[in-house]
Design a protein that fits this description.
InterPro entries: AMP-bd_C_sf (IPR045851), AMP-binding_CS (IPR020845), AMP-dep_synth/lig_dom (IPR000873), ANL_N_sf (IPR042099). The chain is 35% helix and 21% strand. The chain is an alpha/beta fold. The strands form eight sheets. Strands 13-14-15-16-17 form a five-stranded mixed β-sheet, with helices on one face. Strands 18, 19, 21, 22 and 23 form a five-stranded antiparallel β-sheet that branches.
């Protein structure tokens, strides 16, 4: 069924209803005349609205469309003369589509279309997803980019006026974000040259726990938004790897990360450093970073607004590091997972095709930039030439989340199941009806076990995609659509991934229905843990006849149609709101405190709870402060005593 069906149906019904006159019926000629008139009126309205929309968007973006000259027909000097430096963002209040009668009509039109577009929203066929190519002996999804940062530059060249990112401050086109990234990149290059860092490396294939001499880590300490997006692309296009830190996390966690990554350069701003309480970088963070790049000044020093540096598509970039993601460590020290460009690009292309992203989508950017879900939120949306909409921190975990999704016409989001359950609490209407969330058609859920009540509430009329994957395999490796009444699994292995359920002792493949440990192979595998040789060898292993795989430590079994059932963790790791935590490591760290005799970590209703006993002078505030000072970055939740069962009582 096409998107125009509701319009045609409404037109025919309206025409039919108007065909009854005072004498009961109009004759055939009068009916035809009225039908033609209605069609002409409808066509005129569509043309007029299309023209007004183009005019308003051109004024808002102030890009080449507003001057009536295609970007590709301008040389650099002409473009610089036309471009207005003040138009990095625009005020959405100037857009007539946000208020008034047009807005109500547009919302109703979108609702009619959403009700009839289920066939369009279906995922691509298995044949389409099977179209893979080969890189370094690995099967992967095809694409021209060889560097994750090139997704932005290719989008800017193909769709310069398309809205790339929408924040509270306004909207940014692909070209504007690319120009910002290019400005930051130029200043970053000067910093790297000033530090006299190696630009080439003799080692083409470093050890799995090492990085090459020319693979420099750049830590980004900025709030989610256009500056952080532009900064990560600037870092990757300069052949460095980024590590993004969430400024809502404690500064002790940043200190621990920097100790591991040893970044020569950090990109931040005065406001972000003040938010973290950092007045003296050297005193607060130590030897690294050696230089801090102020993103505000980098953008102010940008000369003109020339075209961004064109992508070079170098095959050498495939094996370079793209980013670091930190996960919980077995001794309380976090592990830095090293992800390469070929792995990140592959998962971005796969996930985007699986959920059916297209250029009309508006995907919510909810995840912290320090959590690897941001990779699919930002880059998969960019690859589809769709719009990322940054959800404010005050909104994403508060009661206004549903209103924000509806107001911003969000069509897709990636979220943990517990968040969906909270949003639907109190009898809130989250359906696709006009009073609910009519635009929200894609839900990617992961990070926690998906329950039947969440599926029953959120799945009708939507594509609810249940995905699974540790950071070590680049975000996601299995997934599948779930409908009401389905047996909930973590789906089947995605194209280019190989999932094996093995006996942990004999390493023999388990038969269908038998439980074993899940091992994953394929191009999505991380290189390893930075400077953690033993842990890398323990988790990333070579299996005869199979190759290199990652031991997830998850119990699983394979069912019908290759779908995988998840049965929990083998070890002591748990996930709280999508964040992996090792309870034993936390208990060990807290037990080292001088006033603690005994402690036990628990998870209650997706909240991390610490039961501790010790000296009388040990207070809750002191316990939390001391835990944060250890640099583990754990956040402890306060719960009523009656919420803790008798079996969980800690001996005095």
């Amino acid at each position: 069924m096409s998107r125009s069906t509701p319009w045609h149906t409404g037109l025919v019904l309206l025409s039919s209803s108007c065909a009854f006159g005072a004498d009961g019926l109009l004759n055939h000629r009068e009916f035809v005349v009225m039908l033609v008139c209605l069609c002409m009126i409808g066509l005129f309205g569509i043309v007029l609205d299309g023209y007004l929309l183009q005019r308003d968007m051109a004024k808002a973006n102030n890009t080449s469309l507003g001057h009536g000259i295609p970007v590709q027909d301008l040389d650099v000097e002409e473009y610089n003369q036309l471009y207005d430096e003040k138009a990095f963002i625009y005020d959405k209040s100037r857009n007539r589509w946000d208020k008034g009668w047009f807005n109500n009509c547009w919302k109703f039109w979108c609702w009619l279309n959403s009700a009839s577009s289920e066939q369009e929203d279906m995922a691509p066929t298995p044949e389409e997803l099977a179209l893979t190519t080969d890189i370094d002996g690995y099967s992967c999804m095809p694409g021209v980019e060889t560097n994750l940062g090139e997704l932005l530059t290719t989008a800017a060249l193909e769709k310069p006026d398309g809205v790339c990112l929408e924040t509270q401050d306004g909207c940014y086109t692909f070209m504007q974000v690319a120009q910002m990234a290019d400005a930051i990149r130029k200043v970053l290059r000067k910093a790297l040259l000033a530090l006299d860092l190696p630009t080439e490396s003799d080692s083409e294939a470093p050890d799995a726990h090492k990085r090459r001499a020319d693979e420099h880590i750049v830590t980004i300490v900025l709030p989610r938004g256009v500056q952080s997006i532009a900064s990560v692309h600037a870092v990757m296009l300069e052949k460095c790897a980024y590590n993004a830190f969430d400024i809502c996390e404690p500064v002790e966690k940043l200190r621990t990360w920097i100790e591991v990554a040893q970044p020569p350069v950090m990109i931040s701003s005065d406001a972000s450093l003040r938010h973290l309480g950092i007045m003296d970088v050297a005193a607060a963070l130590g030897e690294f970073p050696r230089m801090v790049l102020d993103v505000d000044r980098a953008l102010q020093k940008a000369v003109g607004n020339s075209f961004p540096h064109p992508p070079c598509h170098s095959p050498k970039d495939h094996d370079r590091l793209a980013y670091l993601i930190f996960t919980s460590g077995s001794t309380g020290k976090p592990k830095a997972v090293m992800i390469r460009h070929k792995s990140a690009l592959n998962v971005v292309r796969i996930w985007g095709r699986q959920v059916g992203l297209h250029d009309r989508d508006r995907f919510a950017q909810v995840a912290s930039m320090s959590w690897d879900v941001h990779v699919i939120e930002v880059y998969a949306t960019m690859a589809a030439r769709a719009t990322s909409v940054t959800c404010p921190d005050m909104v994403k975990m508060g009661p206004d989340m549903q209103a924000w999704l509806k107001e911003r016409h969000i069509t897709g989001m990636s979220v943990v199941p517990s968040h969906l359950r909270t949003m639907a609490g109190g009898g809130a209407d989250v359906s696709r009806m006009l009073n609910g969330l009519p635009h929200l058609r894609i839900l990617d859920v992961g990070g926690e076990a998906l329950a039947a009540d969440v599926v029953e509430t959120w799945a009708p009329g939507r594509q609810l995609f249940n995905s699974y994957g540790p950071s070590e395999i680049s975000v996601v490796c299995t997934g599948g659509y779930v409908k009401t009444g389905d047996v909930i699994t973590i789906g089947a292995q995605l194209p280019t991934y190989q999932c094996y359920i093995l006996d942990p002792e004999t390493m023999e493949v388990k038969a269908e229905g038998e439980r074993g440990v899940l091992f994953v192979g394929g191009i999505g595998l991380a290189r390893g843990y930075l400077e953690e040789e033993e842990k890398t060898k323990l988790k990333f292993i070579e299996l005869p006849g199979i190759g290199r795989v990652y031991n997830t430590g998850d119990l699983a079994s394979r069912g019908a149609a290759g779908r995988i059932h998840y049965h929990g963790r083998v070890d002591w790791q748990v996930k709280v709101r999508g964040i992996r935590i090792e309870l034993e490591a936390l208990e060990q760290a807290i037990t080292e405190l001088p006033n603690v005799k005994h402690c036990e970590a628990r998870v209650l209703d997706q909240r991390l709870v610490l039961l501790a006993s010790g000296a009388a002078e040990l207070s809750e505030a002191e316990l939390k402060a001391t835990a944060a000072a250890l640099g583990r970055g754990y956040v402890l939740s306060q719960v009523p005593r009656e919420a803790v069962s008798a079996e969980a009582e800690v001996p005095s």
